[in-house]
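Cross-posting from the modeling subforum.

Setting up a comparison between two proteins and wanted a second pair of eyes on the formatting. Protein 1 (sequence, then structure tokens):
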Amino acid sequence: MTDDTPRARVGFIGLGSQGGPMARRIVEESYPLTLWARRRASTEGFADTAAVVAGSPAELGAVSDLVCLCVVADADVEDVLLRPDGVLAGMAPGGVVVIHSTIRPDTCRHIADEAAKRDVSVVDAPVSGGGGAAAERRLLVMAGGEDADVERCRPVFETFADPVIHLGPLGSGQLTKLLNNFVFTAQVGLALDTFAFAERLGMDRAAIAQVLGHGSGGSRAAAILSASGFDTAGLRQARPLLLKDVDIMRDVARTAEVTEPARLAQLAAHTLSLLNAPPTP
């Protein structure tokens, strides 16, 4: 994008711990940004920016070329897009809806069918890395959709992400994110067992974490656990989202009549059980 190219007008809905930093990066890169949230408090943190607040999703859609959603679940995505005063009710033909939420690929395709009636395109672009990574412009974006639509969105994605990976047609980003979270969930349980095993052997968990950070036995899950000081509170808080994504992944596999890796499924179930148990003193 050259300096004299008009910047896309961006709408953003879903200003939580992940979406808030993403939206801030967009407005800090001088994109015209419009926000909407159910709770006024969610937008108050943008009072020091040029972002404006819409009165409804439809009002946001009417002033946006590209609308990003970072809400929690399928029902939330469908609500803000498809309700009578939803984004699609206000969005002009030629716009693009970007789904950063982690939801079912079939939900993305259903939304795309509805959006096509208004000549609006849909890109699914779930992310991985957390709010801190967004603030540092190093989120991972897993995109699915038509080539032209993804490329149109790429400059906005690059305000908060590196890399941005286009994985194929609509739904590909969601499928990849679900697989990523399935594997991560399994690795959390493995990391918890590893550090507990090391401690029972009289080994220093922090020292073992350093070794795993540089050795072939390491994982992102082990690194996250170590960085937290082996405090599982954050992972326990994330358990409902991990459970949601594991359930969706397994349902997608069943629908496709693909046998899931048994060991991976067992480890994921083990993790969810560990995170549901009272923390060890």
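Protein 2 (same layout):
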Amino acid sequence: MLKIAWTENYVLSLPPNHRFPMSKYEVLPQQLLHEGTIREENLFRPLPIEEKWISRTHKEEYWYKLRTLSLTPKEIRRTGFPLTEELVNREVTIMNGTLLCTHSAFEFGISMNIAGGTHHAFTNRGEGFCLLNDIAIAANYLLEQKQAERILVIDLDVHQGNGTAEIFKDEPRVFTFSMHGANNYPLIKEKSDLDIALADFTDDAFYLKTLDANLKNIFDTFQPDFIFFQSGVDILSTDKLGRLSVSREGCKQRDRLVLTLAYKNKIPLVASMGGGYSPDFRDIIEAHANTYRLAQEIYF
């Protein structure tokens, strides 16, 4: 069974300029339920994560300032969100969603989080709408519990996974692969184990060919035994922040490529949702929904 972590949203408490991108977390599960892709039993609502797992990844000083709402104004601005207790609680719950998804991935081959992909959170700071790094926390959990030895992070958001790269820069058991827009945020990139920087207006054909070749090479050389997939849909040509020219069908084929490789190689995979900022809300929902539709098609 496809198990999906879903954290309740807080759209109404945000300023108006933040509500649009956040509302997808409420609309997407309703769409998937309405069309019959999932049923209520596919969804689970995680509780907040234990603090010890946050401290395994993030600096204690940063976590203290975050949970006590004592970040400086500059640090708050860098995150992109107004800092509230509600926001921190939601973030902490999202972290546990991805961690718990690892259990379901071992059982069923795949599990997904309708949130997460918070790849701009560093060990000691948050930025780019990311306070804590769910992929890094869950990966460190697996390493500590000796449930995985070679973890691959496939980050296909249009923005480089700079926080994840920084967290695992000295960890050979985690291979960070980021394929992103060369001229997009962040201005200063970190060094992943493999970075593919794409030119503006990269189209479906070049994108998919590049991804396929590099993923196959990583699978052959690194031989992962667990995968985290950051499946942001801000690569779409319609995305107001993306700068690439990937179609909705191209984005779907991207997801098919990743999920099929994991499935055929019998490698457990957890997908986190990542970004998506197309002006037409339907483009965001349809592109994200395709990831879940493909998971059901390929695995179940």
